[in-house]
């Protein structure tokens, strides 16, 4: 098995709030990402998926307290100082944010924003940088000369594509895409997903696609990880999660996802996610789970590969034959 | 962006009352507001207790002009041989009175006009917007000078003049706030069920506008004192009311500088500055607490902390 | 074209405001209580006949409406009337005065912008730390000190070193251009510094506020994510976006600048328009006062227009 390009071990993030109990946004997440693999992180708002993505790049605010390990090509990132982390950012791991209108500087030309990364990370300078920026834009389907325009002159889909071009400027190994298709119309959405798939195949780029839309992830990702209340509940092949979801939450999520051919009624999930500032013993989904039984309230189920098809964190599957959880590759 | 939901998940919950309560808690937590409040309160107390704190009435001559500081007179004497320290304490009465009264005038005029304009809109609003625009471009201090010169100097006149020329900023702020409140769900619902204007204003609009108005008025006190000081310096203050501004003017025209009598100049200026700083601290803190800026700054030097286990 | 449309709209609005200002100006000064003529101190015991003749000469015996039209006509010819006290053309008086005020005010404002913006950025960059608190404290202190007091303090401090009154040395006879310029420059230092110090505090607070607003924007986060480092994110991304609203906010403080100029010119006996206003008030010289007011108001309107045009030019979001 090839070395994972991104390796996350027991990542926990909590936010210290003045005068209130701390908010535990991420409660122990582990996964590996192989080169060229596309992993989808799916869950409701507030489940911690965006926080997880930010944590990988070290973009958390000063109120955040983090524990665990994040390794990119074997190099641990969380313990680095800012200066060292700046050399890793964009060159090894790049990010595309939700809503590219606000993530692109409105008073700087698009091309210049790409040239800037090339220049700061010493990839190219001056004329060469401008040419490279043009190539990158063409790669995402934007004519190179359009780069001289400003972000507000682009449509939403084009802006997102420009953001992807900018993200690829320094040839990173990992691309984090945080809700890249939300706030886009269906057509632009499809274009972006197709683009991500194509680039990932062509360049061997590993992608973490964060979305609340299971359909998006089922379509473009190899694997899917379902998050709830800061933990991964199920992590398997994307098709398997969509067609044969095992975790009760994943099941309800799939049922709640509208598909064209079904005719089945969309079933909303009753109840609400737990408050993140309270201590949670046991499985966080217990209050809303129709299958909750005795061990669920007190014992937290571990995410382990069971029954040959991916990993699931649920006591219902305790008796199924266990496969060893992903071991940490010694660096 | 995404952090607001994570760091303040319950911020948008709760109606206007709980938001106000949270705002009040935020103000109490800020040392700047407390410090400012203490400063202003301190000066007000001194002004009220003036007869108890001073040995003589205001303007009583106790020695030769510009006598230097001594044990009996810690801040020396001014150009009229009056004890500077007691003059400072008596002057606090005048300066603070003018400042607060002028700010009150400004609050009443600006507040009501802003309320009417923001609530009713239409012609009233258009006219008011033009008037406010005019006051933005006309040089305010020269206008005050002209009116003061024509009308004649007296404390009452100064209060009215300063108040009537500072109302525009208050009106602008109130108008914007009233307009935004007016569009909110609960106001529209109240209108739909036929509640009268007075009732809507009193029950829904005022509680939302009130705190902002107060914050603005506190800031106006500072500006009013500044304006009074300027008018006094230009000889347009009430000659019988020795405010801090008048003390600076007296020092200037009495050639305190050539006499080397810094003690006649420094204290009143510092007092004016102290009160204005106090008002600014309180006013800005309240404003910030009411319209909290997102706590996120992506440029802070401190970053997240790496700890052993982020789960206990 | 969007840009041209906005430009025309801005210029049109400015012209309208100027016209309104002219009218209000007229109303204030002609409708002022106390007949202007009876206040002319130059005529100690004029006979009723002489007073009548004077009224006729100054056009004060016509109806208000006629006076208004006459005023507009004269204005169109650049005629602002004659000073009551010196009989000099008001335009001459004002042009000379403005010519003295502008360099001094420009110097002071330039100092205030340079130092104020720097202090504001400094405080915003160190938001939450001691540096921020110190910066804000310093800015507040400078903002709160009365301008005339600062002037007096500077006189006390620099009395022997720099000239403290007037615009030039009265004893220099027939100075050459350079020594005259040097002399004026030396006299300008303290008044400009006084003006600048108060403005500096205000600009620092405005800049800090503007920067804090921008520092939470998404593109600043993106800049950090790109590995650009704090400083570059500050200068190339945050500052660039904060400058636009800053230009407008600075233009809004023109009223403070004018007020400061009046006080500073009084303290330092600087022969500028501030002092002209002051003397005209004490001598009830209405034509001069009216003219000075008009000039000041129109200047502020024009400066606001320039600021709006600058923003229009700089902001790519509104350019055609």
First-last Cα distance of chain C: 6 Å
Oligomeric nature of the chains: heterotrimer
Order of helices and strands of chain A: EEEHEEHEHHHHEHEHEEHHEEE
Radius of gyration of chain C: 24 Å
SSE string of chain C, helix = H, strand = E?
HHHHHHHHHHHH
Instruction: Determine the structural class of chain A based on helices, strands and strand pairing.
Output: alpha/beta
- Shape of chain A, please? globular
Helix content of chain C: over 70%
Molecular structure report:
- The complex is a heterotrimer of chains A (331), B (312) and C (320).
- Chain A is built from 10 helices and 13 strands.
- Chain A has 331 residues and is of the alpha/beta class.
- In chain A, helix 7 links the parallel strand 7 and strand 8.
- In chain A, helix 5 packs across helix 6 and helix 6 runs parallel beside helix 7.
- Chain A starts with 5 loop residues before the first strand and ends in an 8-residue tail after the last strand.
- Chain B has 312 residues and is mostly helical.
- Chain C has 320 residues and is an all-alpha fold.
- Chain C is built from 12 helices and no strands.
- The N and C termini of chain C lie close together (6 Å).
- At the B-C interface, helix 6, helix 7, helix 11, helix 12 and helix 13 of B face helix 1, helix 5, helix 6, helix 7 and helix 8 of C.
Give the topology, please.
The complex is a heterotrimer of chains A (331), B (312) and C (320).
Chain A: E1 6-15, E2 23-33, E3 38-42, H1 49-57, E4 64-72, E5 75-76, H2 82-88, E6 93-96, H3 100-103, H4 110-120, H5 126-139, H6 156-167, E7 174-178, H7 186-203, E8 206-211, H8 214-220, E9 223-228, E10 231-237, H9 238-243, H10 248-255, E11 304-306, E12 311-312, E13 322-323
Parallel strand pairs in A: 3-8, 3-9, 6-7, 7-8
Antiparallel strand pairs in A: 1-2, 1-4, 4-5, 9-10, 10-12, 11-12, 11-13
Helix pairs in contact in A: 4-5, 4-6, 5-6, 6-7
Chain B: H1 3-7, H2 16-29, H3 31-48, H4 50-53, H5 84-120, H6 122-137, H7 140-151, H8 155-165, H9 167-182, H10 185-192, H11 197-233, H12 244-253, H13 266-290, E1 305-306
Chain C: H1 2-30, H2 48-57, H3 64-76, H4 90-125, H5 130-144, H6 147-158, H7 177-215, H8 218-225, H9 230-252, H10 254-267, H11 273-282, H12 286-314
